[in-house]
Amino acid sequence: MVRLFKAIPEVEMPVYNGNDYPLEISESATGFSIIDHVPGEQVEETLLVASAEIKTSQTGREWLQFTFNSPRGTCKGKQWLNQGTAEEAMRPYLETGIVHVFAKVEEYPVDSGNKSLTVQRVKAVHGQSGTTLLPQMPHGESASQYRDQLIGLIDQMEEPLRQLAHRVLVTYWFDFSTRPAALYHHHAYIGGLLKHTACMMTIGTGICQSERPYLTLLQCIQEAEADHKNDLFQASEREMRQFAWDESFDALYQAARSITLLNESPRRDELLLGILLHDIGKIFEYTHLGASDDRFARLVQVEPTEETVSGIALDPNGVLMGHMPYGCFVLEQALQNDAIRLPIDQYHRLMHMILSHHGKKEWGSSVTPQTTEAWYLHAIDLLDARKEKWRQNQSS
Fold it and tell me: Where would I find the beta strands (DSSP E) of 114-220?
């Protein structure tokens, strides 16, 4: 396990030896990463085409825009059209979904850190599995460790919330353990949702087990501020890159202030179940090569359909609702399947955590947090996502 905050003690969990939660994730990531290359450099790489679009400028000029996947991450790309039609230029990208490109690394704006590939030549690749090119966990990290941590923490919960947690995982384990937690900004790789959830549950457990949970949260926020200050000190005057912790601290201190005013201790098991469920809907909002075709049919009354997808992408149906409503559906399904009836106030606190975890309506929350657990969940989510992004920046 990656230790994210010094304020949260390390906890050793027993190794999971059961059969309910197998893993089908690569333990090592090698290959192309655009952060290894400088602007102006020529590269030759084999990449997975996650998305491909024909774009048109205001002057009517067309170009191709892409998202490429490789085991070490995701990058954006484009191709200018010098001859022929856009449809003709697009054919190699759509033929197998895997391409060998000759490209130039670009950065715009200058010194922003926003690098992309400008493709100069391309050819379709045959006879290679696209799943080998999906982004994987960072080098040195193990999906099995995050699985063990997650299951170990769930097993510490009391019934019936522990039963609900296991019911959710057993029903959706393959998709949960392989789905990314985002497309670009954090945990944007196979197994990212598993890692994000396990780390958040570790932080949440550490906060709840401390003598003064509120102060432990503040210590984590102070560590984040120290990270941010170090970034600022190390940045040159001309750098325009985005810092991982930008726009975070107002939201984090708003959460801390709200927790103070509510003046309640967090209900640990409710918080942990809320953490498990808060992003479970990304099983439906995102998709990737190899994702199960029947996941919607296992949740709602629809026919299973065969998907055509290459790399990691937004699901065109899932984005119409977003992951928060799906999370509520998953909780209700687990309750129905195991015939569990919760106290009405507990039921609504759990649903409220799912619907409010982005903190602000302008950040995508269905509602704003109103309970102690919801504010803790929002703060922990923000801390873990931004810490992951900060760690990525440090390795670049």
Answer: 115-124
